[in-house]
Amino acid sequence: MKPRNSSEPIMAQEALGTLHSAGFSRRNFLKGSGMLVVSFSMAGLPVKLRAAASALVEPLDVPLGQVDSWIAIAQDESVTAYSGKCEFGQGFRTVQYQLIADELYVPLDRITLILCDTDLTPDQGITSGSQSHPTEFGLNGLRQALATAREKLFQMAAAQFAVSVDELTVQDGVISVTSQPSRNLTYGQLIGGQQFNIPVNHTARPKDPRQYTVLGTPLPRYEIPAKVTGQFEFVQMVRQPGMLHGKVVRPPTVGAKVLSVDESSVQNLPGNVRVIVKKDFVGVVADKEFQARNAVGALVVRWSPGVGLPNQADLYDYMRQQASRDSYTVLSDDVDQKFEQAAHVVAATYLYPFQMHGSLGSSCAVADVQGSGPSGKAMIWSASQGVYPQRNSVALVLGIPKENIRVLFVEGSGCYGLNGADTVCFDAALLSQAVGKPVRVQLTRKDEMTSGESFGPAYVVDLRAALDDQNRITAWDYEGWTLDKGNRPNATAPGNIITGALVGFPTPPLVPGPGEPPTSYRNNGNAGSSYGAGCVNGICGGTGTISSERVLTHTIGSPFFTGPLRSPARLQNTFANESFIDEVAAFVKDDPVQFRLRYLGDARLIDALNAAAKDANWDTRPSPKPGNPRTGIVSGRGVSCVLYEGNNGYCALVAEVEVDQVTGKITVTRLVASQDSGPVSNPDGLRNQMEGGALQGMSRALREEITWDPQKVTSLDWVSYPVLRFGEPVPVVETALINRVDKPQTGAGECTITLVAAAIANAVFDATGARLRQVPFTPERVLSALNASGSFLTTTPSEQSR
Amino acid sequence: MDIRVNGTTYTVDVDPSTPLLFVLSGELQLNGPKFGCGLAQCGACTVLVDGQPIRSCVRPVSAVAGHEVTTIEGLGTLENPHPIQTAFIEEQAAQCGYCISGIMLYGKTFIDSHPNATEEEILRALDTRLLCRCYAQVRMVRALVRYAEGVRA
C-alpha cells in the first residue's frame, strides 16, 4: 500500500524492480535544484544503477540539437533516452523503445526511456497531429540523435583500434573489428558516464528500415501488464506528501461572472475547507477529496447571467451568417468558367456537430506551488500533450518565471486531443499557490464535459462538382464554415483555455478577414478532396487529377472553447468530401471504388484504396444496391479514403452495414481498413490504433453530438452525451497494413477514424438509397432521409449563382 | 471503521458516507479502481464486493463493512497475474487502459458463472453502462473469449 512515486518513468521491469528494491527515487534524485546528478547516497545501489544514475545528466534547457539531450550511456552499458513525445495509450512509448534498440544495436532491457519532463527532455512541442511517428524518425527527432551517437561511437572505436569505421561491426552495444572480433569495446567503455558533447548531425545515416530487427515486430506494449494488474499510476493517482484536494466551481452558464461568493456557506464543513476566488475562478480546497466535493456542492456563489448562446437548432444557418476569417487551400482561376460550361452540376451540403473528447477519466493534475513572483517555484504532474507549452502558460497564470516551473508528464486517461488536461493544471496550480501545499484536482464529469475541455468544432460544408457531357468531373468547389475559440494554451495566451480566461487572461478573438490566394498547396485540414490535383502556382501537391479546384474555409468565433479533437477538421472535411464523391459516383451510375480511381493520381493512395476493397471482397457496381426492398432490414457497403493531412498517412476503409428501415437503426457489421504509414514500426500497435479508430469513429458518426440550451451546455454525462458503449455489438474489424520500408514514417493514429463517418453514410446509401448528410446518424435522421425524395440536388449551370 | 480489501482488514478514519472509491484510492492508495464519472455510468471504479461487481464511486464505504472487497490488484500481480489479466495481456487488450477494472471484473464475474457463454452472450451481459473510450473493444472481446476458454478447460 505504499504510495508509488509518480515521477518514475516506465522502465524495463528488471530495472524498475531493482530501483524499487534499492529505494531509488528519481524525484529525490532530482530534488532541490533539479540540476545534474546525484543528491542522494548511492552507497546502497548496485554498481549498474550507480552508473545509470550518474549518466542522468540534466542539461539546463535541453536543446533539441544536442545528442546529450536525447541519450546518455552509463558505464554499466545501460542506455537512458529522453523524448518529448508522450504516451497516451497509443503505444508510441513502445515504438520508441524499439527505435532505440534498433538504431543503437542494444537489447531492449538495457534501455530506460524518460518522457516529457521540462527538466529532462527536449522540447518537442505538442504530442499531437499524428506527428510522433514522422517526428521521431525525422531529422529533428530521436532517431537522428541516436544515429549521430552511433556514428560517434564508431569513430571513437575506430580511433582506438586505428582502423576505419568501415572495418567495424556492432552487436548488442559492443563494437568490434570485423576481421578480429576479439578486438572490441563496449559502449560503456567508450563513453560510459560521459557526455557526447556533439550536436545532432543531420547527415548521420540512420539504419535502413530493411535492416530493422526490433522495429517492425509486434513487441508487446510496455504498460499493459501494469495497467491490467492495477499497478500503473495514472496522473489521477499521483499522491504527494501533505497533498490536499481541490474542486472548482465553474460558471453555471457560458460567460457568467462572479458577483459574490458566500464563504460562510462552507465554514462549518469538515476538512479545513478553504475557498479561493480569483476573478471568475472559484475553487475550494479540503483535506480529503470527498470533503472538497461536499464543499463545492455547498458553496453559495452568485453569478451574473450568461452571454447567451446561438439557438442550437439554427447553428448551421448561424454559422453562415457570421463575419468570418477566410482561407483558401487552393484557388484555380477557371472554376467559375468550368461551372458555366458544365453539362451537369451536382451539389450537396454536409453538417457536422460539435463533439467532445469525453475522456473516460475526467482530467486531473497535481500541483505543488510555493510562493509567487520571481522567487516562486512550482512542480506540476500533468497529462498535458505539451509539457513545455503548459509550463510556459502556467507561468503567466501563477506569475512565476517559467525557469522555476517543472512540468512532469504522467499518463492520464486517453485524451484524443485537447481535453481538460491543460486547464486542470491551471486549476490545481492556482489552488496550490493559494494554500501553499500540493493540491490535486480531478474535475467532475460535468465540469469536464461542460467547462473543462475544448470541443471539436462543428462544420458546414457546401460541395459542388461540375460535370461535362461525358459525366467527367471538370471542377470541384468546396466552401466550408467552422468555429474557433481559444485552442491550446501557450506562452502568450493562457486565456486559450477556460481557467486562463476565468482568471482574466484574454482569449484572443477571432479576427475576420478575407482569404488570400494560397502560395503553395498545403492540405493540412483535408478541406481539399483526395481527387483534386492541388495545383498552386503551377506546382500540384494533391493526390487527385481534378485540376480546377476552389477550396475556401470560413472560420467564425465559437460560443464554446474549441481545440483539436482526434482528426481535427480532417474528419469533418473528409466526411463531406468522401460522401460527396460517392454522390457524384451515384449520379453518373459508376462504382464507388472505380469512380474514385478515375480521379486519383497518387500511387500510394490508390494502393490503399485497392487494398481495402480487395480485403473486403468489394462488390463492384454502382450504388444503391439493386434489388434491396424498401422495407425491413437491408444491407450495403460503402468506402472512403484519404491522405491524412495531405501528407501524413494513406488509408482507406470499407464499411458494411445493415439498416433497419422501420426503426432507422444502423448496425455496422464489418469494417475493413487499410493503412500505409511508411515502414510499419509495430504491426500490432498499428492494428490496435486502426481498430480503436474504427470504433471510435463509429461512435462519433452514429451517436455523438454536444447539446446546449440558450445559456449552457446540456451534454454533461454519458446519458446526455450518448456514445457507443461496451457490450453493444462489435463489427468485424479487419486491418490491412501496407509496409513501405522505402518511404519515410508518417502519422498512424488518426487515419482510420477520419474515414468512418463517410464510409458508413455511403454504405447506408448503398443499402437504402437514402443519403445521410448530417452527423450523427441517429435513427430519427435515418428515417427522415428514408422519407426524403431525391437523394441529391442537381442543378443546371444557369441556375447557379454565387 | 474497518473494511476488508483484497484479503486484508484496514481501519480507516472517514465519514461513513464517503464513496468507497475515495477510500480505496485516497486512504488505501490503490490504483486499480478509478474515478471516471462518479455517476455509475462508465465502470472505471468497478470492484467486487463478495464476488459481485459494483460501482465504488456511488457506494458508501459504510455499505461494505463486513464484506470482502476485491480490486483488480487483488486478482493477481505483475509476477503472477490472474488468468483474466493474462488474457488481456496476451491479447494486448487495452489502449490507455483507464477503463480496465469495469471490463475485466464484469467480464470475469459473468464468465465464471457462465463458462459456456458465447461471445454474443458475453457482450450482451456486459451491455451495462461500461465504456472504453479508446474503443479497444475488438481486443477486449477476444480477451474475454480467451478467458472463457480457459475457464472451460
Describe this structure in words.
The complex is a heterodimer of chains A (802) and B (153). Chain A is α+β, with helices and mostly antiparallel strands and 802 residues long. Chain A contains 21 helices and 27 strands. In chain A, strands 9-10-7-17-14-15-16 form a seven-stranded mixed sheet. In chain A, strands 12-22-19-18-13-27 form a six-stranded mixed sheet. Mean pLDDT of chain A is 92; it is low at 1-60 and 791-802. Chain B has five helices and five strands, in the order E-E-H-E-E-E-H-H-H-H. Chain B has helices spanning 20-27, 83-90, 100-113, 119-125, 137-152; strands at 2-5, 8-11, 46-49, 52-55, 68-70. Chain B is globular. The N and C termini of chain B lie far apart (42 Å). Classes of the chains: A alpha+beta (802), B alpha+beta (153). At the A-B interface, helix 8, helix 9 and helix 19 of A face helix 1, helix 2, helix 3, helix 4 and helix 5 of B.
Task: Write a brief structural summary.
Chain A is of the alpha+beta class and 802 residues long. In chain A, the strands form seven sheets. Chain A has a seven-stranded mixed beta sheet. In chain B, a hairpin with a 2-residue loop joins strand 3 and strand 4.
Key descriptive features of the protein:
heterodimer, A: 802 residues, alpha+beta, 7-stranded mixed beta sheet, 6-stranded mixed beta sheet, 27% helix, globular, disordered N terminus, disordered C terminus, B: 153 residues, 5 strands
Please identify the structural class of chain B as seen in this structure: alpha+beta
Amino-to-carboxy terminus distance of chain B:
42 Å
Q: Overall 3D geometry of chain B?
A: globular
Compute the CA-based radius of gyration of chain B: 15 Å
Most extensive chain-chain interface: A-B, 68 and 67 residues
Question: Major sheet of chain B: order of its strands?
Answer: 2-1-5-3-4
Fraction of residues in H or I helices of chain A: 25-40%
N-to-C span of chain A: 69 Å
- Overall 3D shape of chain A: globular
Total number of helices of chain B: 5
What composes the largest sheet of chain A?
7 strands, mixed
Strand content of chain A: 15-25%
Uncertain stretches of 5 or more adjacent residues of chain B: none
Strand content of chain B: 5-15%
Task: Please report the total strand number of chain A as a whole number.
Answer: 27
**Number of separate helices of chain A:** 21
